[in-house]
């Protein structure tokens, strides 16, 4: 489809409420070039429609596409979709008042690699994007020039007088009705049916895509919820198992302690009964012996615990010493690794030099320098000093000449603290560059000479 001169290009932006902004195509191009920004669309992906409108405010073509905006409201600089080409090469769409339009969307895209950047318009009742486009264009808020359809005047020389018997309309009862050719009627019916089928297919594709997106979103949400529930169940099961083990262990320890207390109590009762049967002296002796035995057992237990603590202290000291040794070994290995990496780089350079490869570098004033392998370390340490030596000047003079060569202006400082920046003739060779003269204008050069003479 070739764009006629009277066809106007416009761009309309959609949000959840419908068309939120419209502009002419030159304004849209200015926005893409970064001349204009849209802060209200910052950090969003907007749905946009490119339309071709004739002089009677009727849509002839439409392309529905996505456009991303940055955080500052500027359009994505990488966006590049040939809207006019898509509008010319795409298929038919619904009739918006001037016959079937040219429609390019996700489900009807003439170029497959642009399909992912397009979107399907909705055809639901009350939320029909085609109706929104048609009504918004009819409002003519863009101020388009409208061409009214006027009847064509017939020249006077072409007017002819008809016979008198044809001046009056024939009697409808006597005149048989004019029948429309069956081929034309059938063709019109086929065109209407094909257009209706295409609209329904487009609506079905849009609904299918929306349904698949909802299903995938719900599946993903369900999967995430199931994963969270599984993790929570596993965590609770692990905590319950740990608690059960702890309870069982404490229960066994409690039973063992109760059994030991019971045995000790029985033993003590038996001994007390035996002591009661003996004399009071024997009872006192037995009690003293029992106390002494108890203290001896307590002292033995304390000594045993002290010994265990000292063993743990020795193990801890040994572990600390082992950690320090391992840390030293790690540092030594890192140093060896650095040395080996440096040696491997030097060996690589030697192998490349042996194979005939030369190392070259470009410096202003010195040109392309061929660097021998023996000078590679000195060049890497200070490339500027190496180039200055090749030019036969000092490093300071070469550095000031490079600044003068790149920007030949006066570097003298004015009384206001700013640089003079007076353009100078460029000195092409570093050897002919004189500090304080070649990089100063005539006024500051004479002042510098006066200060030197005084």
In angstroms, what separates the terminal alpha carbons? 84 Å
Strand ordering within the main sheet: 2-1-3-4-6-5
| Number of beta strands | 10
Structural class: alpha+beta
Rough outline: flat
Please provide the ordered H/E string of secondary-structure elements: EEHEEHEEEEHHHEEHHHH
> How helical, in percent, are the residues?
40-55%
Percent range for β-strand residues: 5-15%
Count of DSSP-assigned helices: 9
Low-confidence regions? 159-169
Mean pLDDT: 81
Q: Cα-atom Rg, whole angstroms?
A: 49 Å
Largest sheet: 6 strands, mixed
Region (Disordered): 169-189
Protein name: Chromosome partitioning protein ParA
Coiled coil: 190-285
Keywords: Coiled coil
Characterization of the model:
It is a single chain. The chain is α+β, with helices and mostly antiparallel strands. Among the domains are: 8-147, no CATH class; 280-357; 362-453, no CATH class. The chain has helices spanning 25-32, 83-89, 129-139, 182-277, 280-354, 376-381, 383-391, 395-406, 442-453, and strands at residues 8-15, 18-24, 45-53, 59-68, 91-95, 100-104, 123-124, 127-128, 359-363, 367-371. The strands form 3 sheets. Strands 2-1-3-4-6-5 form a 6-stranded mixed beta sheet, with helices on both faces. A two-stranded antiparallel ribbon has the order 7-8. Helix 7 packs across helix 8. The chain is flat, with a radius of gyration of 49 Å. It starts with 7 loop residues before the first strand and ends with a helix. The model is unreliable at 159-169 (pLDDT under 50). Residues 190-285 form a coiled coil. Residues 169-189 are annotated as: Disordered.
